[in-house]
Write a structure and sequence with these properties.
With 203 residues, the chain is an all-alpha fold. It contains eight helices and no strands.
């Protein structure tokens, strides 16, 4: 009889141990999800897309492990807890570093905007000195139109920066600078060509 009670006691302990491992880690799931959501809300997808995808994928993998254990008779959520803890930790680390990434992106966008503005001014100054000879009028008018378009585009960059769309602002400003530089280069080439064609120019 004593032996039977001993066996029964052991069985009860086993069941209790299994039950202890079989509770879904609801708190860990909530905490990990909140950490990843905080990264997304703070602009992670915009300023650190690869890293944000990484923590999102890690959270999804942890949730899949939870689902896998949910479908088992004897559940063990130890691995799921480890995955959830890692996803939470990585997300919190990423969120801490987002401020620096934002500032860097803002600095790059602001610097590109300033460079684009300088390039447009330089192109306008060069165009003012462009040769007015025969056959050049159409080209000059075309370049004036290009510069007007670039000035209008410049005005669209600052609102992008204000809206923290730094990548779009950076790329747009870089494109404006490139086109303005092309105008300056075209004017310089035209002036050199006209200078070379002047009568009596010494060789």
């Amino acid at each position: 009889m004593r032996k039977m009670w001993s066996v029964l006691a052991v069985n009860v302990l086993v069941v209790l141990a299994l039950a202890g491992c079989g509770s879904q880690p609801a708190q860990e799931m909530q905490s990990a999800k909140a950490a990843v959501d905080a990264v997304v809300a703070d602009g992670g997808e915009k300023f650190a897309p690869a890293e944000t995808k990484g923590v999102s994928d890690a959270l999804n993998a942890a949730m899949e492990e939870v689902k896998t254990q949910d479908g088992k008779f004897f559940k063990n959520y130890d691995k799921a807890k480890e995955l959830l803890a890692k996803a939470k930790g990585d997300a919190e680390t990423l969120k801490t570093g987002l401020a620096a990434k934002k500032e860097q992106a803002k600095s790059e966008a602001t610097a590109n905007l300033a460079a684009a503005g300088d390039a447009v001014k330089a192109a306008k100054a060069a165009l003012a000195k462009a040769p007015k000879g025969k056959g050049a009028a159409a080209d000059i008018e075309a370049m004036k139109g290009d510069l007007q378009g670039l000035e209008a585009a410049l005005a669209e960059v600052q609102p992008l920066i204000a809206g923290q769309d730094y990548a779009a602002a950076r790329d747009k400003a870089a494109g404006i600078k490139s086109k303005a530089d092309e105008v300056s280069t075209a004017v310089a080439a035209a002036m050199e060509k006209m200078a070379a064609a002047k009568p009596g120019k010494k060789k």
